[in-house]
Amino acid sequence: MSTPETSRFVRLRVDLVLEVEDQDALTKAALRRLAGDAELPQEERTHAEAAVTEDTAEALAYLVDPFDLVSEVPGVDLQQASWSSERIEYDPDSPDWEIDGDDGDDDEEEEGGIG
After folding, report:
1. pTM, whole model, 2 decimals?
2. Is the distance from CB of 89 to CB of 57 less than 8 angstroms?
3. Tens place of pLDDT for every residue, the chain, 115 residues?
4. Cα angle value 72/77/79 (rounded, 5°)
5. Number of domains forming the structure of the chain
6. Please, is 30 exposed, middle or buried when counting C-beta atoms within 10 Å of its C-beta (0-12, 13-18, 19+)?
């Protein structure tokens, strides 16, 4: 349904928990991506190389690109994206790890999705 009051913009929130099984492979992939980025200034490259080498969460954040997630979705144009990664303690059997269990906004958001 499209009315003048309906916004064309949609915020898509994705929350992933990934298990890093090979930190070395992840770090090497991030370093390869950095090496192939001809537009990255040397000062930023040096900083990024240090970050991905010291922290696998940084390496993962460098490799995951929100544009790649939606670039082939017909009828949409990515306007803005931000993302981050962090190391966490994870227990899949804990009730604390339900989908959207940690955002505190359950009453304000529509529920939906797969699962």
Report:
1. 0.69
2. no
3. 555 678 899 999 888 889 999 999 999 999 999 999 999 999 999 999 999 999 999 999 889 988 888 999 999 999 999 888 888 888 888 887 776 655 444 444 444 444 3
4. 130
5. 1
6. buried
User: Does residue 12 lie in a domain region?
Assistant: no
Helix axis angle for 42-54 and 56-63, nearest 10°, is 130
**Vertex 20 angle, CA 97 and 80, to 5°:** 70
Count of CB atoms within 10 A of residue 60's CB? 21
Residue 36's domain comprises 27-71
Flag whether 16 is in a domain: no
SS3 state at 42: helix
Which residues contact residue 113 at a Cβ distance below 8 angstroms, ignoring those fewer than 6 apart?
99
Angle of helix 23-35 relative to helix 42-54, nearest 10 degrees?
A: 170
What residue type is 47 in one-letter code?
A: H
